[in-house]
Specification:
With about 110 residues, the protein is α+β, with helices and mostly antiparallel strands. It has two helices and nine strands; from the N terminus they run E-H-E-E-E-E-H-E-E-E-E. The strands form two sheets. A six-stranded mixed sheet has the order 4-5-2-3-9-8. The protein has a three-stranded mixed sheet with strand order 1-6-7. The radius of gyration is 13 Å and the shape is globular.
Length: about 110
Amino acid sequence: MEQPVTLSPSAAARVAAIASRQGRDPALRLAVEGGGCSGFQYKFDLASAVEDDDTVVERDGVRLIVDAVSLDLVRGCTVDYVESLGGAAFRVENPNAAAGCGCGSSFSI
C-alpha cells in the first residue's frame, strides 16, 4: 500500500538527532496553516502525542504525523531535509501545490 506522505531518510535522521538531543520521542508533526507569502505555510514540530484522526508513517524508527485537515493539502508529498549554502531546513515536496514561494515554506493550491 502506498503511503499518503513520505519521510526521506535524511529527514528521518535529522528528526532522530533533534529528538535525541531534547530527550523526546522521534516524531515529527507536519501541519498546514493559513498564512505565508503564498496562502498556506508548513509548520514542523516534534510531536508529543498522536491524535485519533492523525495519519502516521514511519521510516527508520522515526514517525511523521499529519492531522486529517493538513493531510488533504499534503497527500503525496515527501518531507526532506536539505542542507545548502543558504542553510539547512526541512522541505516539503508537494505535488498538490500549484505555486510556491522563494523561501519554500509556503504554497498555494
